[in-house]
Amino acid sequence: MRAALTLPVLGSSRVTFSLWYVRRGDCIVEGDRIAEVLIPGATFDVHAPATGTLAEQLAFPNDALTPGQVLGWIEEE
Amino acid sequence: MTDTPPTAESQKPTRALSAYLLGTVAFDALLAFQRRLIYDISGDRTTAALILCDHPTGITIGREGSRSHIRPNPEDLNARGWSPRWVSRGGGVMLHVPGQVACYPMLALDAHGLTAGAYLDQLQGVAIELLREFGVTGEIDPDHPGVRVNGRRLVHIGVAIRDNVTCFGMVVNADPDLELFRDVRCDGATQPMTSLARESSHRVRVTGVRQRLLELIASRFGFDRTSVFHTHPGALHQRVRHAAAHRP
Q1: Residue A9 main-chain phi, psi, to 5 deg
Q2: Which of A8, A41, B102, B221 is most exposed, with minimal Cβ within 10 Å?
Q3: Does residue B91 sit at the A interface (CB-CB below 8 Å)?
Q4: pLDDT (tens digit, 9 = 90+) per residue, B185-199?
Q5: Is residue B237 part of a domain?
Q6: Distance CA B191, CA B181 (A)
């Protein structure tokens, strides 16, 4: 089963993807910080919603993002 | 004498703020202390901490900063001991010098019902209120959070949110040597930064600014109880040099 890694509501109209802390295929545990997004003045860490393997990365540095957008997929254990 | 029945108001969980009024803190020590506080607060989300300190002269570069905002070349920077440090916070380049007040609130956003954007608005609100108390009118720039006065930045804002707990925060130029800011374009601004002492007709003391920031943060984020500390646990592990014992 796959779990979506989505962007939470950050209360800013300008959100950009900053970086991935993990690579595709890496094992992750629920709650791990796996990506960082940027709003003007603040960085925000996005945490893994499930334990498994990062199967897909859909966002890349400097991509403009919207709330609820899927950043990647996690293949659950 | 009868016991008063507990009301909804009295049963509301209290919000406690631990404020650390520290002097000059090396950046490495700050990072370690922040990590520890984030760990504590993410475990008990009704608690919060505030670090008020300043840093030895140096440069930090946030995610929105660039090396091109720093005028001196690497050799010059080394000679001055200003080696730039890249940090994972928002905001751009900041030059840390004595005479500033670094204000780093650490609180769980979910416990306060805030989003990241709303938290930044609150932080800017604190800065605007602080300036108003010194008779200075600040302007907010939505594209580059921070506060400007007469077109020059006075308050730098750069925040990081980890596990929904905030860290880093803002730096207020209370009374620093402004000449140094000619070499560093803080937050990419073309004009050098200004200070409260320069813009205000009131007497500006760093300790006074620090105290007012503590009070403004406590009231804006609704803390019922504030405990003030003048040292931090990390300081206990620093080596202390004692005078050599006298041996006859």
Answers
A1: -75, 125
A2: A8
A3: yes
A4: 999 898 999 999 999
A5: no
A6: 9
**Which residues form the domain of B153?**
16-231
| Backbone φ, ψ for residue B158 (5° rounding) | -155, 115
d(CA A7, CA B215): 34
- The ipTM value here is 0.94
Choose among B88, B117, B146: nearest Cβ to A39: B117
What are the beta bridge partners of residue B93?
Answer: B61
User: Given the structure tokens 């002269």, which residue do they identify?
Assistant: B57
- The domain tally of chain B equals 1
Could you tell me what percentage of chain A is helix, strand and coil, using 3-state DSSP and rounding each to the nearest 5?
Answer: 0, 55, 45
Cβ-based neighbours of B144, under 8 Å, separated by 6 or more: A40, A41, B64, B91, B92, B187, B188, B189
Q: CA separation (Å) from B226 to A8, B213, B214, B219, B229? A: 31, 13, 9, 10, 10
Confidence at residue B182, expressed as pLDDT on a 0 to 100 scale: 93
Query: What CATH number is associated with residue B69?
Result: 3.30.930.10
Note whether residue B86 is domain-resident.
yes
Is B7 contained in some domain?
no
Asked whether residue B4 is domain-assigned, the answer is no
- CB pair distance less than 8 Å for B117 and A18: no
| Chain A (24-53) residues lying within 8 Å, Cβ to Cβ, of chain B | 33, 36, 38-45, 47
CA–CA separation, B22 vs A76, rounded Å? 45
Taking only the tens place, the pLDDT of each residue in B73-121 is 999 999 998 889 999 999 999 999 999 999 999 999 999 999 999 999 9
What does the DSSP 8-state code read for residue B222?
T
Task: Please calculate the CA angle B57-B59-B63 and round it to the nearest 5 degrees.
Answer: 155
Domain A2-76 has CATH 3.40.50.720: no
Tens digits of per-residue pLDDT, A23-74?
Answer: 999 999 999 999 999 999 999 999 999 999 999 999 999 999 999 999 999 9
Question: Which residue among B88, B120, B163 places its CB closest to the CB of A41?
Answer: B120
